[in-house]
Design goal:
The protein is of the alpha+beta class. Helices cover about 45% and strands about 20% of the residues. The protein is built from 5 helices and 7 strands.
Length: about 140
């Protein structure tokens, strides 16, 4: 998906921008995340010594569906959600996200939590999130050509 060049580093979000984004409702944040991830061809999750950090979803039946992999479009948003010094943001390249991480999340029966905030965020099936992300990427690239 990306050429040989390394993507330029993103300029960090200003504190006011972070506050504005986190104040949005879950659906609006999720929509913004899809576009931002597709535009910059990356996402961010949290990792600890055991691997990817997953969040337990409230109000769901027991079983594998009550876990979700939280993802953010920017490092600083992921860092804000860290619950301990052990949890650190990790960048996921777009191709790895679409081709291996999201299929693995789906295989485990987990959901994806798109840009979670204080309200929890929007949880979606990994396959649906993957499809939306790929479609958003395709649309962005059609606009640019």
């Amino acid at each position: 998906m990306m050429g040989e060049e390394e993507a330029p580093p993103l300029s960090p979000l200003a504190p006011q921008e972070i506050d504005r984004l986190l104040a949005l409702d879950a659906q609006t944040r999720a929509d913004w995340m899809l576009e931002d991830c597709a535009r910059h061809e990356q996402a961010w999750g949290l990792v600890d010594s055991k691997g990817w950090v997953v969040f337990q979803l409230p109000q769901s039946p027991a079983g594998p569906g009550h876990w979700a992999l939280p993802l953010w479009p920017r490092q600083e948003l992921a860092a804000l959600a860290s619950r301990s010094a052990e949890e650190q943001p990790r960048r996921v390249d777009f191709e790895v996200l679409l081709e291996s991480l999201l299929p693995e999340v789906e295989q485990r029966g987990w959901k994806v939590l798109a840009c979670p905030g204080q309200d929890g965020g929007l949880s979606e099936n990994a396959s649906e999130f993957r499809g939306q992300l790929a479609q958003t990427w395709d649309e962005l690239n059609e606009e640019e050509t």
